[in-house]
Hydrogenase maturation protease (Mycolicibacterium komossense), 280 residues
Amino acid sequence: MAGAGAAGQGESLDIEPPGCSVLVVGCGNLLRGDDGVGPVLVRHLWERGVPEGARLVDGGTAGMDVAFQMRGAERVVIIDACLTTGSAGAAPGTVFRVPGAELEELPPLQGLHTHSFRWDNAIALARWALGEACPTDITVFLIEAAGVDLGAELSEPVSTAMNQVIDIIEADYLSALRPKACDDAHVEFTADGYVRLDAALAASRFPSDAVAAVVRDGDFWLIPLRGPRSGGLLLKQRNPAGDRATLVREVLSDRIPTGIHRAFWDDAQGALRVPLDPQR
């Protein structure tokens, strides 16, 4: 025991968060209606699939923790609810995009306590505590709340605005980190009724791993869904390389076209299509 203790004394423990290309932080209180839009948004992004190089954080109301999560991130996106006041108060669901250049003048840290900590205080603390390690590329999305009553759900305008912000984050921050889809795609149908996709095709077109499968117009269609809560089938990982497979025997009515088939992505339908007729 003494030897083990002595050996342990020479070891250092790294408790710093890992660096990343993009850090997305959702702030707010899930128990108070629209105030929870940040954490809810992060959950939706998790369901869509997190690309390598991105990190998602449910910041909740722990602003101090958010400040230290920012260490090592190249780009930071923070999402929170807001309540504008006065005659110029915004309509519920209004989205404010606050670029980093406008975040230079932030509240002072003096006199703050944990119950008054907000996203802007978190950035100010990060700049003070992290110094040069604090990211310089920071963008904040604020969504005007309709209500923050205890136990309420997200209001319809805030939910709509949240989905708009999700699309912006995907387009401006996450899409560049996802694998690029190749034009020459193939899938394999197995004798036991599975369809198999290689890792690159699955990651580029089906990041959430939730899919719908149908046969239509002589083609087998595999359609990405936003996440497991959408229902459908689950693309399961079948090997360490990250290839995926899902059981589609019933969709094919037990007429399984065993073997490797050419596939193409239909942008108009948002689906991977596999011609079942080899002459097509």
User: Anything to note?
Assistant: Confidence is low (pLDDT under 50) at residues 1-7, 112-116.
